[in-house]
C-alpha cells in the first residue's frame, strides 16, 4: 500500500521544521515590523507543497489551514503570528532587499540546515570511513540544471530580433534580461547548481545548498557551493559525486578538501569488438550508438624494478581513469592490457599545509615478482609535450567502470531532486520568475520543503502523515518477499 503525501501535512511540517529562525535572521533587516520574517520563509517553502504561490495563498485564506500550521509550530515552541503570510508581503520584503535577496537566503540555508541533516541520519559525524566504498549517507552529490524562464520571449543575440512575442505593437514584453554580459546567450534559461545527500530510505533526502551560475561556468559555481557546504559539514563528507563535468582541477579541489571525488561517467565498454584503430590518444569505438564511444588514455611514468643486473620496465597507462600496464614496446595499451585493479587509498596532510594529499597505491604484477606503484592523485604529471596537468584528470581514485551501475544510481539522486521540483511546479519545469535571484530564493524554498519532508518522516514524525509514512517504510514489502523466498531457498547459501 502506498501512503500518499498530503500538502497540508507538508505545510505543517514546514511550519515546525528546525532551522527557520536562522534563515529569518538573514532577512529580518528587510522585514518591516508588520511582516514576520519566519512566516515569509514558511511561505517561500510552502508554495512548493501546492505548486504555486496563488494556490498557497488561497489555501491560507482558509482559517483552519493557518491555525493548524500555527499549532504545529507551537508544538516545537515556535510562535507564528495570527495572520498568515501573503504573496504581497513576500514581494515587498524581496523588493526592500533588492538584488541579492536569494543569495543571502542561499548562504544562510546551508548553515541553517546542518542540524536537520544530522537529525535524519545524513552526513553523520565520526562515521567509519571506507575510502573505496563510501557509505551512501556520507556521499554528497552535486549537479547543475537549467530552468527555462517563465517567458520564452527573448532577444536573439545574433539578429537582435525579438523572438517569441505575440504582441503586435512595440510594448515592453516580459523577458529574461541576462545579468551578465553574454550570459545565457539570449536563451531564457536560469541555471542553478545544487548539492544534496540521499540515504538508503525513501524521503531520506536533504538539499544541502543551492547556487546560481550565470556565466556558463557550472563547475566553478558547483565547486564554490561544494566549499561552502564542506565548511559546514567538514569530514562528514566522505565523497562527492558529480557527472563528467567534474574534471581534473575540480577533482583535485575535492581531494585537497579530504573528500573522495567520484565522477559518474560511463567507461568505454572493454573487449568491445567495435574497437577500431587508436586515434591519437583516444580509442574510437566503431558503433556510434554505444553509450560512450571513446576511451581516454594517458601515459604515466613507468613502473620499474631491478631483476638482478637487468631493469624490468612496465609501461603504465590510464585507460578511462583506471590503470593498465603493458610492455613499454607496445606503443599503446589495449582493452586486453592487464588492469592494475583497485588501488589502496590513503589521505595525508600536505607537507606545505595546503590541504590533503591522496595516495593511490597499485600493485603491478610481473613474473619476476610484484611492484608497488604509488601516485599522488593531488599532484601533477607531465604531458608528452612537457606541460603539467593534474594527475586527477587522468586517474580516478574510484574507477567508475566497475561499479558504474551503483554510481549511476547515486548520481540520479540529484536529478530526482530537480525532477521533484520541476514536476511539482505548476509551471511545468519553468522557473518561477524572470529574475535569477528570485528563482534562487524559490529554490531555497524548494530545498526547505524537501528537507521538511525528510525531517517529518525520518526524524520527528511530527505530523500524522509523517508517522504513517515512517510506518510504511518500516513495514516489509510483502509481495517481494513471498516471491523471492522460494528462489532463495533453492539457491546455495553462504554468500
Ligand atoms: Zn617486472
Count of DSSP H/I helices: 14
The small-molecule ligands in this entry are:
zinc ion
Arithmetic mean of pLDDT: 80
Summing up helix and strand content along with how strands pair, one would put the structural category as alpha+beta
Residue share in helices? 25-40%
Q: Main beta sheet: strand number and arrangement?
A: 5 strands, mixed
What's the overall geometry? elongated
Number of strands: 17
Order of strands across the widest beta sheet?
5-4-1-6-7
Fraction in beta strands: 15-25%
Radius of gyration: 26 Å
Oligomer: single chain
Terminal CA distance reads 31 Å
* Unreliable segments of 5+ consecutive residues: 176-184, 268-291, 480-495
How are the secondary structure elements laid out?
Blueprint: H1 7-16, H2 20-27, H3 37-50, H4 53-61, H5 63-74, H6 87-97, H7 101-112, H8 114-119, E1 139-148, E2 154-155, E3 162-163, E4 189-198, E5 205-212, H9 218-233, E6 239-242, H10 248-256, E7 260-263, E8 282-284, E9 294-307, E10 310-319, E11 322-326, E12 338-339, E13 344-349, E14 356-364, E15 371-376, E16 380-382, E17 388-390, H11 404-424, H12 436-460, H13 464-474, H14 478-490
Parallel strand pairs: 1-6, 6-7
Antiparallel strand pairs: 1-4, 2-3, 4-5, 8-9, 9-10, 10-11, 11-12, 13-14, 14-15, 16-17
Helix pairs in contact: 1-3, 1-5, 1-12, 2-3, 2-7, 3-4, 3-12, 7-12, 12-13
Zinc ion binds at residues 305, 312, 314, 366, 368.
Provide an overview of this structure.
The chain is an alpha+beta fold and 495 residues long. Among the domains are: 7-106 and 435-476, no CATH class; 295-393, no CATH class. The chain is built from 14 helices and 17 strands. It has helices spanning 7-16, 20-27, 37-50, 53-61, 63-74, 87-97, 101-112, 114-119, 218-233, 248-256, 404-424, 436-460, 464-474, 478-490, and strands spanning 139-148, 154-155, 162-163, 189-198, 205-212, 239-242, 260-263, 282-284, 294-307, 310-319, 322-326, 338-339, 344-349, 356-364, 371-376, 380-382, 388-390. The strands form 5 sheets. The chain has a 5-stranded mixed sheet, sandwiched between helices. A hairpin with a 2-residue loop joins strand 10 (310-319) and strand 11. Helix 1 crosses helix 5 (63-74), helix 2 (20-27) runs antiparallel to helix 7 (101-112) and helix 12 (436-460) crosses helix 13. It starts with 6 loop residues before the first helix and ends in a 5-residue tail after the last helix. 41% of the residues are buried. Residues 176-184, 268-291 and 480-495 have low confidence and may be disordered. Bound molecules: zinc ion.
Amino acid at each position: 500500500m502506498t501512503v500518499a503525501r498530503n500538502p497540508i501535512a507538508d505545510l505543517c511540517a514546514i511550519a515546525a521544521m528546525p532551522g527557520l529562525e536562522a534563515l529569518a535572521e538573514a532577512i529580518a533587516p528587510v522585514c518591516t515590523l508588520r511582516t514576520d520574517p519566519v512566516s515569509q520563509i514558511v511561505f517561500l517553502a510552502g508554495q512548493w507543497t501546492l505548486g504555486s504561490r496563488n494556490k498557497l495563498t488561497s489555501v491560507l485564506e482558509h482559517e483552519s489551514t493557518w491555525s493548524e500550521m500555527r499549532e504545529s509550530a507551537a508544538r516545537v515552541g515556535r510562535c507564528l503570528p495570527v495572520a498568515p503570510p501573503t504573496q504581497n508581503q513576500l514581494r515587498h520584503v524581496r523588493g526592500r532587499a533588492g538584488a541579492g535577496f536569494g543569495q543571502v537566503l542561499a548562504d544562510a540555508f546551508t548553515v541553517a540546515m546542518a542540524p536537520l541533516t544530522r537529525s535524519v541520519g545524513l552526513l553523520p559525524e565520526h562515521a567509519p570511513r571506507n575510502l573505496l566504498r563510501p557509505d551512501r549517507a556520507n556521499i554528497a552529490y552535486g549537479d547543475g540544471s537549467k530552468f527555462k524562464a517563465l517567458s520564452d520571449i527573448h532577444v536573439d543575440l545574433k539578429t537582435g530580433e525579438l523572438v517569441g512575442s505575440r504582441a503586435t505593437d512595440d510594448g515592453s514584453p516580459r523577458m529574461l534580461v541576462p545579468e551578465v554580459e553574454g550570459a545565457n546567450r539570449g536563451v531564457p534559461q536560469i541555471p542553478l547548481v545544487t548539492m544534496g545527500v540521499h540515504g538508503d530510505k525513501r524521503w531520506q533526502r536533504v538539499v544541502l545548498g543551492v547556487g546560481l551560475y550565470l556565466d556558463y561556468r557550472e563547475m566553478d559555481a558547483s565547486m564554490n557551493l561544494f566549499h561552502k557546504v564542506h565548511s559546514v559539514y567538514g569530514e562528514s563528507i566522505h565523497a562527492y559525486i558529480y557527472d563528467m563535468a567534474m574534471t581534473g582541477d575540480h577533482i583535485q579541489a575535492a581531494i585537497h578538501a579530504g573528500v573522495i571525488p567520484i565522477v559518474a561517467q560511463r567507461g568505454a565498454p572493454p573487449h568491445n569488438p567495435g574497437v577500431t584503430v587508436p586515434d591519437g590518444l583516444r580509442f574510437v569505438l566503431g558503433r556510434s550508438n554505444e553509450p560512450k564511444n571513446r576511451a581516454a588514455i594517458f601515459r604515466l611514468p613507468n613502473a620499474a624494478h631491478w631483476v638482478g643486473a637487468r631493469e624490468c620496465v612496465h609501461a603504465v597507462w590510464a585507460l578511462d581513469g583506471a590503470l593498465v600496464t603493458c610492455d613499454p614496446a607496445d606503443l599503446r595499451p589495449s582493452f586486453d592490457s592487464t588492469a592494475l585493479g583497485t588501488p589502496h587509498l590513503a589521505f595525508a596532510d600536505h607537507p606545505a599545509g595546503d590541504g590533503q594529499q591522496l595516495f593511490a597505491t597499485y600493485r603491478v604484477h610481473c613474473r619476476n615478482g610484484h611492484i608497488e606503484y604509488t601516485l599522488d592523485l593531488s599532484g601533477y604529471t607531465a604531458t608528452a609535450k612537457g606541460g603539467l596537468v593534474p594527475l586527477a584528470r587522468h586517474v580516478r581514485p574510484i574507477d567508475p567502470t566497475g561499479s558504474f551501475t551503483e554510481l549511476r544510481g547515486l548520481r540520479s539522486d540529484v536529478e530526482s531532486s530537480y525532477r521533484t521540483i520541476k514536476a511539482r511546479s505548476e509551471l511545468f519545469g519553468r522557473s518561477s520568475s524572470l529574475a535569477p535571484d528570485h528563482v534562487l530564493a524559490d529554490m531555497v524554498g524548494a530545498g526547505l520543503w524537501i528537507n521538511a519532508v525528510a525531517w517529518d518522516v525520518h526524524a520527528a514524525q511530527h505530523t500524522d502523515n509523517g508517522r504513517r509514512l515512517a510506518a510504511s517504510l518500516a513495514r516489509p514489502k510483502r509481495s517481494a518477499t513471498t516471491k523471492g523466498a522460494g528462489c532463495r531457498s533453492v539457491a546455495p547459501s553462504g554468500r
